[in-house]
Amino acid sequence: MQCPFCGHRESKVIDSRHSDSSSIRRRRECEQCKRRFTTYEKIEMAPLMVIKKDSNREIFDRGKIKYGIIKACEKRPVSNEDIEKLVHDIEINIKSKYSGEVESKVIGEMVMDGLKELDEVAYIRFASVYRQFKDRSTFVSELQNIITEKDD
């Protein structure tokens, strides 16, 4: 590992700890200048590809999920921790069930299921965009479904 201070290529590991589920934090000391620095090692896996509605493929991006959830929860009493937990749960669920490719509609359904539990108004906001409600009757129908589920 190259020292960020002097550029020397030799360093020794002083301490190693697991940072999260997929990375290791290492504290290192340069053998030449004796300064210490921290490195993080992440497990690199093959990227998960998302198959879009138009059959194009793109790399899975948790940021897009988070952005959609944040927009749906705007001006609602939903904490950042709740949003982050939902995004994390969806990401873990996707990565545990799908190894190479996943359809965007699967991700959208997971987001809607999570939002339905988190905040019904945010769910309706997300569903109206995701399902592309064309008129108010479709919107009212979805509201009726939520009311019926809640009464059961």
TrEMBL record:
<comment type="function">
    <text>Negatively regulates transcription of bacterial ribonucleotide reductase nrd genes and operons by binding to NrdR-boxes.</text>
</comment>
<keyword id="KW-0862">Zinc</keyword>
<feature type="domain" description="ATP-cone">
    <location>
        <begin position="48"/>
        <end position="138"/>
    </location>
</feature>
<keyword id="KW-0804">Transcription</keyword>
<dbReference type="GO" id="GO:0008270">
    <property type="term" value="F:zinc ion binding"/>
</dbReference>
<dbReference type="InterPro" id="IPR003796">
    <property type="entry name" value="RNR_NrdR-like"/>
</dbReference>
<dbReference type="Pfam" id="PF03477">
    <property type="entry name" value="ATP-cone"/>
</dbReference>
<keyword id="KW-0805">Transcription regulation</keyword>
<keyword id="KW-0067">ATP-binding</keyword>
<comment type="similarity">
    <text>Belongs to the NrdR family.</text>
</comment>
<dbReference type="InterPro" id="IPR005144">
    <property type="entry name" value="ATP-cone_dom"/>
</dbReference>
<keyword id="KW-0678">Repressor</keyword>
<dbReference type="GO" id="GO:0005524">
    <property type="term" value="F:ATP binding"/>
</dbReference>
<dbReference type="GO" id="GO:0003677">
    <property type="term" value="F:DNA binding"/>
</dbReference>
<dbReference type="Pfam" id="PF22811">
    <property type="entry name" value="Zn_ribbon_NrdR"/>
</dbReference>
<dbReference type="InterPro" id="IPR055173">
    <property type="entry name" value="NrdR-like_N"/>
</dbReference>
<protein>
    <recommendedName>
        <fullName>Transcriptional repressor NrdR</fullName>
    </recommendedName>
</protein>
<keyword id="KW-0547">Nucleotide-binding</keyword>
<dbReference type="GO" id="GO:0045892">
    <property type="term" value="P:negative regulation of DNA-templated transcription"/>
</dbReference>
<keyword id="KW-0238">DNA-binding</keyword>
